[in-house]
Amino acid sequence: MENKLVKLDIIDLAFNGKAVAHLDGKVVFLKGGLPGEKVLAEITSTKRHYDEAIVKEIIIKSDLRISAPCKHFGICGGCAWQDLIYNKQLEFKRKQVADCLERIGKIADVKLHDIVGAAELFRYRNKMEFSFHVTGDDSFNLGLHHRGRFDEIFDLEECLLQSDTANRIVHFIRDFVKRYNIPAYDIINHTGFMRFLVIREARRTGQIMVNIVTNKGNIPTRKELIKELRTAFPQVVTLVHNETALKSNVAVGEKEHVLFGVGLIEEEILGYRFYIRANSFFQTNSIQTETLYRAAFDLLMPDKGDRVLDLYCGTGSIGIIISEYVREVIGVELVADAVSAARDNALANGVSNIEFVEGDVKDYLRSDAVGDTPFDIVIVDPPRAGVNPKALRRIIRMQPPKILYISCNPATFARDAATLFKAGYRLPEVRPIDMFPHTMHIELIGVFYRD
Ligand SMILES: C[S@@+](CC[C@H](N)C(=O)[O-])C[C@H]1O[C@@H](n2cnc3c(N)ncnc32)[C@H](O)[C@@H]1O
Q1: Which span out of 5-14, 25-34, 233-242 was modeled with the highest average pLDDT?
Q2: Smaller CB count within 10 Å for the chain: N or C?
């Protein structure tokens, strides 16, 4: 069956960004292709319950298809749908939320709003991570992952999701590393030095941070790097170097050195200033974050007397912004760097009714630290895995009247919603928000009520 060429009618788009067709009663996930298209495809792998295929030729083209503006589209693992008109991207994302609520959450009577589209379809990201990757010819690539491959990086010329300046910084760093013969890291043998380049660019202030993540050791030509980078890019306000000996392929350092500037940049969200450090989470689409937070607060309708627990609080942005409308906020976050930035953020914004606790949400909820004073609102904004099941049980035991759930994964949102339903919570409405045009990522919010 593998390598066989087949004609397929594409009927849908799947959660993972692939197209969906049926063949002999089995589902086929295809790389390429849009709903309504007839394609000639090659089966690339056969599994028990589904097949995988790659589109070789489009026989009948969809009216929804447009020409993708990015030169790396199709190869790059970042954008899946640049070739699909934006309104349809939004429709498919909304449908995926509906499917998850129905299939995983078994939730039928919730009002699912239309997805709120993004104002900017390109150049919207305030953070991009690029990997160094050794190539066979004693050289290296600096860029993004090939679609579906953790171990293949293509040499990036331009990414349309980041600014032109950020693209020029990628070229500058690549050229610098080549000129000074600094070895790139080899993820198979764990040898070499340069691992990642992370660029963060605040949209409201224009400040840029360049973060270089390496294997253990000093950057050999750091004086030259500082001088040349500052001359070429005065917008770069800080350069940081993160060292890590960890084998896992993540752009996070164990030891940080600030090579110039103060090791952070400032961004503005809804009129508040936020410090962003290299290793702490910050929403990556600043402009659409304002839409997300506004929609969340509109749904939540906080009260001046409310006591709020902000779980998975990152650098404290939600808690700090909501603090104005409530009595008191406690934020809980695992990453020390983020907690320290959150405390600085509260101070910088003159917010005094907020406190941050460093730790795992599930341990915090089990500990004495949580206290006996009830919370009126619990906010959860977990990573893709959703709320830890033990943590969710502990939240339920606390019986907060309102739980605001901000999710970046409709599947785990639906799973957690089912648990909350069983515990007596109701969810009148869900609002999906598109933070990442052309990619398959979906953000959604809902407020659960206990009567
Ligand atoms: C999606 S981010 C949300 C951050 C923040 N609410 C915001 O809007 O900027 C999830 C955050 O949860 C933190 N986190 C992940 N697992 C955690 C855990 N078990 N306990 C506490 N925080 C955790 C991550 O470090 C990250 O900052």
Answers
A1: 233-242
A2: C
Please write the tens of the pLDDT for every residue from 410-442: 999 999 999 999 999 999 999 999 999 999 899
Q: Output the pLDDT for position 1.
A: 67
As annotated, the residues of the chain forming the CATH 2.40.50.140 domain(s) are: 1-65
Say if residue 98's pLDDT is above 80.
Answer: yes
Pocket probe for ligand 1: among 281, 405, 407, the residue whose CB has the most ligand atoms within 8 Å is 281
Is residue 406 a contact partner of residue 288, using CB atoms and an 8 Å limit?
no
Question: Which run of H or E residues covers position 330?
Answer: strand 328-333
Domain 1-65 class, CATH top level: mainly beta
pLDDT value for 149:
81
- Tell me the sheet residues that pair with 134: 140
Q: How many CB atoms lie within 10 A of CB 221?
A: 16
What the block records as the tokens of 141 is 């690539």
- For 8, phi and psi rounded to 5 degrees? -130, 145
Which pairing describes strands 50-60 and 5-13: parallel, antiparallel, or unpaired?
unpaired
Examine the residue annotation and report whether 76 is marked as an active-site residue of this protein.
no
* Range(s) of the chain covered by CATH 2.40.50.1070: 127-269
The edge-to-edge listing of strands for the beta sheet with 354-358 is 111-112, 429-433, 443-449, 402-407, 377-380, 307-311, 328-333, 354-358
User: How long is the chain?
Assistant: 451
Q: Does the Cβ of 286 fall within 6 Å of ligand 1? A: no
Per-residue model confidence as pLDDT tens digits over 20-59: 999 998 999 998 899 999 999 999 999 988 999 999 999 9
Check if 445 has its Cβ closer than 6 Å to any atom of ligand 1.
Answer: no
d(CA 160, CA 170): 13
Q: Per the CATH hierarchy, to which homologous superfamily does domain 91-119+285-449 belong?
A: Vaccinia Virus protein VP39 (3.40.50.150)
Task: Dig out the tokens for 77 from the structure.
Answer: 């693992």
**Residue with CA closest to ligand 1 atom 19:** 360
pLDDT tens column, 325-377: 999 999 999 999 889 999 999 999 999 999 999 999 999 999 888 888 899 99
Largest Cα–Cα distance in the chain? 66
Q: Is 334 in the pocket of ligand 1 (CB under 6 A)?
A: yes
Nearest protein Cα to ligand 1, atom 6: 313
Determine which one of 70, 100, 313, 408 is catalytic.
408
pTM of the model: 0.91
Separation CA 108–CA 430 (nearest Å): 12
C-beta of 389 in contact with ligand 1 (< 6 A): no
Secondary-structure class of domain 127-269 per CATH: mainly beta
* C-alpha of residue 216 to centroid of ligand 1, in Å: 27
* 358 CB within 6 A, ligand 1: no
